[in-house]
Design brief:
Layout lengths: L4 H15 L2 E2 H8 L3 H13 L3 E4 L2 E4 L8 H4 L4 H14 L5 E4 L3 H9 L6 E5 L2 H7 L5 E5 L3 E3 L4 E3 L1 H7 L4 E6 L3 E3 L3 E4 L2 H12 L1 E7 L12 E3 L6 E5 L4 H9 L3 E5 L5 E2 L1
Parallel strand pairs: 4-5, 4-9, 5-6, 9-12, 12-14, 14-15
Antiparallel strand pairs: 1-3, 2-3, 7-8, 10-11, 11-13, 15-16
Helix pairs in contact: 2-3, 5-6, 6-7
Length: about 260
């Protein structure tokens, strides 16, 4: 976990934002500090307007419902890299693929920088940053309205551009994913776009690190088509994967050494 007071407090805000109520005892165990240290952190965060405190814990203010992409970039770095490497190995020469906005798809784009004879379409700024100097990758930006928090394009212009293309594969990110309801995001614009992205693609992959499995941080959902593939990392607990297996979802657990388990 993050070291240092500032990094710890930033991480507490992210946890409260994405997971809801967290007790002092849970935060103390998570960060390896004393409960009194956590109480001081919470007091400072409340004074700064970052958190609203409740008895024994903390909950994010409604004004901060979604962590920014820049906040998420350093989270689960190794997990995202393992997922990205597995995903990149699925992509063949001559394919046209669609990459969602997000930090994990940004990691996938990083793995594709030296690809040849490849077309990548994207709604994400991180993907564009990674492929800006990739000489042999043809890049299509599905522009539209920029969501500053997620650094992704959404809206009618994005959807219109999407309707002009089809894709061999789409790689989607998520704030949370469940076997029952699909992908969870902060806004209906995002979930509508993800559904359309899946509809335009032959194969659908959802790339999420293990902390996002079963999570429901928001109330907007994207349904996923039959045959979609869940790709996560080696920290995924069997109990968190069981609901996906029960519904017949193909599950890939990417290992740091490049191997996989299902």
């Amino acid at each position: 976990m993050p070291r240092g007071t500032r990094a710890r407090r930033e991480a507490i805000v992210r946890l409260a934002t994405t997971s809801g109520l967290a007790s002092v005892e849970e935060l103390s165990a998570t960060f390896g500090v004393t409960p009194s240290t956590i109480r001081r952190d919470l007091a400072q965060l409340e004074a700064a307007g970052e958190l609203a405190r409740t008895y024994g814990g903390a909950i994010a203010l409604v004004a901060h419902p979604e962590a920014s992409l820049r906040q998420r970039l350093g989270e689960a770095f190794e997990a995202k890299r393992s997922i990205a490497r597995w995903a990149a190995a699925r992509i063949g020469a001559g394919e046209t693929v669609l990459l969602d906005a997000g930090s994990t798809t940004g990691a996938l784009a990083h793995e594709l920088r030296n690809a040849r004879d490849l077309t990548v379409a994207t709604t994400g700024m991180t993907v564009l940053e990674q492929l800006a100097n990739a000489e042999y990758v043809h890049v299509e930006c599905l522009g539209g309205t920029l969501r500053h928090l997620s650094e992704g394009f959404v809206g009618p212009l994005t959807e219109a551009a999407l309707s002009r293309m089809t894709f061999d594969r789409v790689f989607l990110g998520a704030d949370g994913v469940t076997a029952e309801d699909g992908i969870c995001e902060a806004s209906l614009q995002q979930t509508r776009l993800k559904e359309l992205m899946a509809q335009r693609s032959e194969k659908v992959y959802v790339l999420v690190h293990s902390a996002k499995l079963g999570r429901r941080p928001f109330h907007a959902w994207a349904r996923l088509p039959a045959g979609w593939i869940l790709v996560t990392d080696s920290k995924a607990d069997p109990s968190s994967l069981a609901p996906f297996h029960a519904r017949g979802v193909e599950v890939v657990v990417a290992q740091p050494d490049g191997t996989v388990r299902t």
